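Late entry, heme C complex.
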Amino acid sequence: MRLRTRVLLLPLFAATSFAQTYTVDGELKLPPDYRQWVFLSSGIGMDYSKEPSAHPIFDNVFVNPPAYAEFLKTGAWPDKTMLVKENRVSSDDPLSNGGKVQTSVVSREIHIKDASHGGWLFYGYRADSQSAKPVAKQEVCTGCHSKNGATETTFVQYYPTLVEVAKQHNNFRETSAPEK
Ligand code: HEC
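Prediction complete; structure with ligand written out below:
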């Protein structure tokens, strides 16, 4: 009887803790510990503007550990996958010849797969926001991501530890470089 209660409570607990990722008015909370998640990649100057910037923005992409573990097993993103992209100002390193380092956060973005919200959605955060509504014009983001992302609407081709895994599971689309 005791064992049975425990088995019944577990899924209930899991559901409750995921529900807490949204505020009462439906905004997605910025996970406070995402810096302890699995690091996937950094990009620099990925703003697709015509002019190169003297201070290009760095981005760092992190994924929640259970989704990463599942991807390693199946080559696909499970429901409740959260990918956080943290955008930081770059600064010149005076000691090196043209080297750049990362400084303060300018914004963050989240790409989340949540069946209870209809699948993949994008959220945008100012540097100081702790929660956000979905990006108003999802099509701006989805247009590039679904056309150019190698796996579903994500850029697995730029996440070196996942490229081979996705290919082994036939979940990798060869795509051209993102269009401007
Ligand atoms: C012109 C193409 C393009 C557009 C438009 C675009 N992205 Fe991306 N996005 C990328 C590329 C390339 C990456 C790969 C990672 C990187 O930038 O280092 C990426 C990665 C991401 C990631 C990390 C997870 C993933 O999906 O791979 C998030 C989150 C993200 N973008 C959010 C957004 C949001 C929000 C918008 C719309 C406001 C947007 N993107 C519009 C090209 C694009």
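Residues 148 and 175 are 6 Å apart (CA to CA). Will revisit in the morning.
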